[in-house]
Specification:
alpha+beta; 2 domains; 6-stranded antiparallel β-sheet
Amino acid sequence: MTYTKLSIIIKNKPQYFIGSQLRGALGYALKKVTCINPSYTCDGCFAVSNCLYHEFYEEKNTFHKYRFDFELGREFYNFDFYLFDSATAKLPYIVSAFHMLLTQIGLGKEKKTYSKFDMYINDENCFSDGKLKLPQNFIKTFTIDNFYPNISLRFATPLRIKKENVFLRSDEIGLDELVNSIYQRQMRLLGKEYKKFPYPIIGEIVSKELHFKELSRYSNRQKTDMKLGGIIGEMKLKNLNIETYNILKVGELIGVGKSTVFGLGKIKIKPELGGRCE
C-alpha cells in the first residue's frame, strides 16, 4: 500500500477538536486551487470526473483516499494529512491548497493567516524562506519491520464502528470488529471489494479502559450540529498472531471505522513486555 504524509505545525492554540475545522477549510482552499468551472458549482459541471475537490468532498458513499491525523486538545496545531494509493499523485494540489489556506484564506472564525509555520512531506521540510519545494520522490510504500505479539492499543480519537447498523459502545468492541473494520477500509482504499479478513484472528484482550467520548461538528451544508462520538481509551492485547498484528499496524496508518476524514479512528500501538518476534 502506498501513502504520502504531509505534516503541518503552527504555534497557535487551536480548539479541542480540530478535525471539522481543518477539513472544512481545506475543502474551501482546494476548490479555489482546482476549480476550472466559471460557475464555480459542482452540479452539472463538465470537469467532475477529473476534479480532486469533487472526489474528496462531493462524492457520496465512497471511501475517500485521505485522512487527517492529530491528537485531541493540543497546545498548538500539529497535525498530519495522509494521502493513500492513487491519491498520492495529487500531493502538489494538496500542498498548494494548504499553503493558500494558511497564508491567504485563514483558519477559524477569525480567518487568521500565518506567515510562519512548518510543513513537512514524509518528515522532510518542504517550506522555508516562504517558498515551497516538493521532494522528488514523495510516494512511500507501507512496510512492517517487526512483530510484537503483546501490545497496548490506544484509541486516540473517537472510534466509530457500526455493527448491525448500530455504533458499538466501549464494552462491545472486540478484536474481530477491529480487524474486519480495518481490512474493509484497506480493501476499499485499494479499489477492491470487501471480504472478511482471510486469516485467523488470534489474540486475547487482557484489559480494557475505554469510554464513549462525544464530539460534534457544525455542518454548514445541513445547518445543524452533527454527532461524532465514539470510543476512546486503551486496551491491552496478548498472544497476537502475525497476521492480526500486521492488520492492526495497517489501521495505525489508514485509521479505523467511520469519519476518518475528520481525524477520527486514530489508533496507536505500543509494544508490551513479552519480547519481539522476528
